[in-house]
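Methods: example folding runs. The two proteins below were folded one after another, and each record is reproduced exactly as written to the output file, sequence line first and structure-token line second.
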Amino acid sequence: MPQINLTAIVKSLPEKIEETKAMLQEMVFYSIKEKACLKYELHQSQTEPHVFIFHEIWKSREDLDLHNKQPYITGFIEKSAELLQEPVSVYITDII
């Protein structure tokens, strides 16, 4: 099975940057402990501090699907409507 390369762009409401950042950092803390997680990096834009970008690599699609069912992910999704400007943009990519 091919590994999954994923980039996710998260745009916080300006007044919710710190709360969003704390939740995203909690996701990193738990996600990197998952056996199938090969990379899970969180970046914050220097020029637009409300923009966060994840770079992730998972062993397989099944592993990513399992990751997305974890409570720290589902909890963020449930709370995201009050934290974010728009839904998270997720891109599954191939390295070229």
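Second run, written to the same file directly after the first:
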Amino acid sequence: MGAGPQAVEVLARLVAFDTTSARSNLDLVRYVQAELATHGVESRPVHDPVQDKAALHAILGPAVAGGVALSAHSDCVPVAGQAWTGDPFALRQQHGRLVGRGSVDMKGFWACAMAAVPGLLAKGLKRPVHLCLSFDEETTFAGAPLLVGSLAEAAPPPAFCVVGEPTGMTPVVAHKGYASWDVRVTGRTGHSSLTHRTANALEAAAEAVAWLKREARRIAAGGGRAAGFEPPWSTIHTGTFHAGTILNIVPDLAEFVFEVRSIPGEDGRLVRGALEAWLAAEVLPGLRAAAPDAGFTFATRCYAPPFELPAGSALLGLAQSCGARGGPLRVPYGTEAGVFQRAGIDSIVCGPGQVAQAHQPDEWIEEAEMAACCAFIDRLGDALAA
């Protein structure tokens, strides 16, 4: 079973836009707006502060309460250094697969949503379908909070949201949150024979990293637990560390990056607060004794809240009646579902393709998966028209 020529054609157009996160997505947004306009659908861009990116919101059907959002992100990961066998931004059809950057993560889902617009409008929807397109999901998560925070400006927000990340059309009802920071430590340099006159930024940073490791061990041994996750506790990871030049010069600068992946019900940002409190009490006094201006600077890289669909929500049953298959699952990676859920919009993650194909060279999505997604959206339209 193929995906249908309209969905494949739309996907080809979407893949042709290089929307890696370091680039603007405005050309893609304008294309989507123009396509929606051909069907008489108005859309509302929500720009970032520097005006070079935008999220997009459109409503199909009446602007009343009780609708369902179909949510995707427009950005994709870079292709540099990957062994592609063809142009990453030219969609190729190979043995039932559609190959191109972003095909599975997650322009395939958005192509299905756009291809469904005429059919959804023809159903005479009694409750609306909200089309929600974000930006920077792969990096800072800046787009989704802007978009979700503005939904009520246009109409009553949707009651439910389907985030179409690749799950093989299996419903995901919970995932961990994600928070990460860049940390910069400044001290005072000098000759290593006179360390009493210096403030060693490398050693201060190392103490912070050691604290993070101790905290990770404490959580693993006796912290909160959430069934269905691997591992079932929150995790802390330090990914990079840079400091120093040569041995006999005390480093006055050190930098490291760390992340927290938190189970539902926990807030990874609290780890940063606890670390800062410990540093203020145990590390900074000694560091500033020799260098009053020494210190730690934390810059947030990304924050994606954890997500869990409430047990009594009707959304899971609705998704299953529309063709979501298997599950439900809980996954360790993050999506924008937590942003919608925190805004009071019950959410589920369910989309075509497999996450194993995401971010890879020759990224692909099966046409049959897109066909299943198109059928899912069509049945959802029937439910909203009933």
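Comment on the second run: Residues 173 and 309 are 5 Å apart (CA to CA).
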